[in-house]
Task: structure prediction
Amino acid sequence: DVPRAFRYGWYTPRDVYPGRSIVFSGTASWERTSGMISRSIAVYLDGNHIGNVSSGAWAFALEAYISPDTSLGEHTVRAVMPPSGRYAGAEDEITFTVIKAPTAIDVTAPSFAVLPGKISISGQVRSDMPLQGGTVVIAFCGESTVVDIGDNGEFRAKLDIDSAGTLIGLPLYGAFFVLP
Result:
């Protein structure tokens, strides 16, 4: 009884963030089988070999790092099982999408301040992904600073504004989240 058709069952997220790891995993099965064997599977990301895994009892998993430089959009993962003995080779592929991690920033800044002087700015960054190691760049009245994001997404900064002035309304020019 020689296997005739081969199928993969993929368990891989369809959306992936750059700069993070992903586990490509799945199962392999024959339409007709004459017993389980362990097979080597080569895994390719956009045509580049990223590793080999053993299918074990027809299940496989490979963790891969998606570089921060990876372009946004669709990418292809291909699993290739070469022929072995009386078993035919097989391959299958899936696509996934590299997307920017959705984030939101809540900023608390003074409505009024006396210049020159120090301005306290705080806030919180929220995201579906871990924020540890990220930073926030804050620009205020021509001055800027970079602060680390805390474990709960919180940040605090003090800017020393040298401009001469009186009691005025101050616009926050920008707060930007930057991944590690």
User: Anything to note?
Assistant: The chain has a mean pLDDT of 76. The two ends are 53 Å apart (CA to CA). The first strand starts at residue 6 and ends at 10.
